[in-house]
Amino acid sequence: MLMKYERQQIVDYCKKMTVDHLTSGTGGNISIFDPLTGFMAISPSGINYFETKQEDIVIMTLDGQIVEGKRRPSSEHNLHIALYKKKIDISSIVHTHSMYGIVLSTLNLPIKAVDYILADAGATEVPVAPYATFGTEELAQSVANTIGEGRACLMANHGMVTCGKDIESAYNLARECEWIAEIQWRAMAVGVPNIIDDTEMRNVMQRFNDYGQPHNRKEVVYD
Ligand SMILES: [Zn+2]
Questions:
Q1: Which residues, by Cβ under 5 Å, contact ligand 1, an ion?
Q2: Residue 30 C-alpha to ligand 1 middle, in angstroms?
Q3: Three-state SS for 129?
Q4: Is the separation of the CB atoms in 79 and 70 below 8 Å?
Q5: 123-157 as b/e, with b when 16 or more CB fall inside 10 Å?
Q6: Would residue 219 show up in a list of annotated catalytic residues for this protein?
Q7: Taking 70 as the threshold, does the pLDDT of residue 1 lie above it?
Q8: What spacing in Å lies between the alpha carbon of 4 and ligand 1's midpoint?
Q9: Cα-to-centroid distance, 129 and ligand 1 (Å)
């Protein structure tokens, strides 16, 4: 079985995505890319996350060919492929249908720097990709053309996508972005939130790069 370890990671994180309220039902999807083989492991289409097993994960190339797996791959496999082609330094993608990210996307509002932790996305805001039908190449290109320098993007009237050097990094960023989207929404319900300016956000990004132990920065613990 190809990518056995990565398959299990996808199974585990898909369940976590539901438990952490980042999606509901069979919405959302997760992939891991191995740059050495050029293979992408991706969650299957329309299978309950709590019933998904290692053998249900589909292995594909970035040309869209199925290498191993009996299931149909996630309907958003084109989105994952487009982002791996666009960003050569990422190895995992998490696509969520999370409440506050979707709320802001329906208002065409980027996630703004209402909290300094947004710097972990590698950009001063999380942009909104224009709406396109789910599962289409048009949606994949909309996100690829919008995401810019950062590792996160909202998808109008649909959800959010985050990228990382590994699944833990991509998943943690999805949780952070959803949390900040909720802060932004709650602040907007009361007044006009203060937004941290771009210069300070660049400063925070630099400090994040230097944070933690040298060469062993697995996960940032924020003070
Ligand atoms: Zn979706």
A1: 159
A2: 11
A3: strand
A4: no
A5: bbbbebbebbeeeeeebbbbbbebbeebbbbbbbe
A6: no
A7: yes
A8: 25
A9: 13
Q: What is the pLDDT of residues 76-122, one digit of tens each?
A: 999 999 999 999 999 999 999 999 999 999 999 999 999 999 999 99
More confident residue, 86 or 220: 86
Q: Please name each of the domains of the chain with its CATH number.
A: 4-209 (3.40.225.10)
Catalytic residue among 51, 55, 68, 76: 76
- CA triplet 180, 184, 190: central angle to 5 degrees? 145
Ligand 1 mean position, distance from CA 142 (Å): 14
- Give 218 or 21, the one with higher predicted confidence: 21
Cα–Cα distance for residue pair 43/57, rounded to 1 Å: 5
What string of DSSP letters covers 163-211?
EESSHHHHHHHHHHHHHHHHHHHHHHHHS------HHHHHHHHHHHHT-
**Distance from the CA of 23 to the center of ligand 1, in angstroms?**
9
CA of 76 from ligand 1 middle (Å) equals 7
Predicted confidence (pLDDT) at residue 58 exceeds the cutoff of 50: yes
State how far the Cα of 194 lies from the Cα of 127, in Å rounded to an integer.
18
Q: Which residues are within 8 A (CB) of 73 and not within 5 positions of it... i.e. 6 or more apart?
A: 42, 43, 44, 45, 58, 60, 66
Regarding pTM above 0.85, the answer is yes
C-alpha pair distances (Å), 154 with each of 38, 128, 140, 166, 173 = 26, 5, 12, 20, 13
